Amino acid sequence: MCGIAGVFGSDAEQYSVENMLHNISHRGEPNYQTEINQAPGFKFGTNRLAIVDEDMGRQPFISPDGMVNCILNGEIYNHNELRESLRKKYNFKSNCDSEVVLAGYLQFGEKIFELIQGMYAVAIYDSNRSSWYLARDHLGIKPLYYAIDREHCFFSSELKSFDCLKVDLIKDFPCGAVMKNQVLTKLGTHYQFSNKKLEKWSDSDAISAGIDKLKQAVSKMLPKKGESAACMLSGGVDSSSILTLMRFLHDGPVIAYTFYNKEASSSEDYDAAKIICEHLNVPLRVVTPTHAQLTDFYKEKGVWMTETYEPALVRNAVSYYFLSQKISNDGFKFAISGEGADEILGGYDYFQLLPKNEIDMNIGKALNQLNHTYLKMADRASMFATLEVRVPYLDEDWVVFNTELPREFRIRKNENKWLLRNMMSQMMPDIIRKRPKLGMNQGAGFGSNDPGKSIYFNAILEHYKNSPNKMKEDLKLFATYKERYQIDESNPEELFNFCRYISYGFIKLEGSTIRPQLNTSKLVKQNEK
What we know:
Helix content: 25-40%
Strand content: 15-25%
Largest sheet: 6 strands, antiparallel
Number of helices: 20
Number of strands: 19
């Protein structure tokens, strides 16, 4: 896991990849910053968070003849299986998954991107053929941005890297795509829930297959035997299911981490987390920042960290960051999360309010825009604390399995996430298994996360009241973009975030005028008309 950045082009050596990496230094450990290589045609490197084979994992990995260089951000979960098949023709120097990608490319060429499974962004330069490649995982779990001119391709894990470059347009690399020399040779993935005549599944067969698939997904992401494993826990059915499977599958200590407000009269997440941890005999560690710590961080670093102007994402990212920072401070380099369950299992309440023939379409929409919403939030917030987050619910095999199931396994009568809740019927208390979804801040006891009501909205409102000239400056800045962006200038939080987004240069991101579907109440109202 790391942050990657670089440039392809005839004079690539003249560009400061060091500065590109410096802007994302949080994505790697202090001892493994700016690991760079260059030759005619490319210059790229990493800030490395050393998880697999720390001593021998320096990137880029270079072929024995010195002609092919490879860097990777992410985890290849089937790297050990691939390694065994590649040993006959390649002498491995490390146990790293990055070297497996290099060895696979040397043997199979571009086909290696069809063989690897996991979460990743990969860059390869082949000096033998003067060719370069970029590739990204199936759902964009790991970020990858690029900018192209006539002679160059610049790329990085985060928008911050482009601050030191003279580029006018930055693009989000398509999920599941492969690019060779500026041409997409694989267009990428787009998931949809099948509307064809589906195989008939009995409830018991679907539950059994689901348990097996999710166990496999969790098993891929566990640490080595005997090592401690960290789990992000809200006490809801999503994260509690992951914790439960970790507890029974991992041969080593499992520790749960929960975020809550110790000054509140109650926290539903904390109360539920205690119940599931006691049930599993798992220790629970708590993260309890103050209102002031959260709102000050939001104002100072929220948009910079999260690289979005969407208030819902920035609010959640701040909470996620404080949780991630505690886990990182405790010595963990990665944690396992329940992120993505709502988007694959139909967990949001608004899905049930839509016409039946539109439910799966909207679940699919939420799934396919995850790289712009909660995956982006989780990656930026965790990596800002130099922590990797692994997401079993977005494992490729588990995703495909769910998209091929009929709708009634997602939502049945008044029960959402039907399959997961019934998979866990023998493994956890009903009070957890049947618990309804709550937003992160609300469940933690920090109050409503609704627009206009959150602690962050009130903090921005107070900020502008204390500094009226700053509001005038922001309104003036916003006026230039008013016609192209659907920002509610009467909402101080939207105005504040958007103006920070402009000032950081993130406005160069292609498609930034299109807001993802986060205001679900608006969507429901549209369908009621």
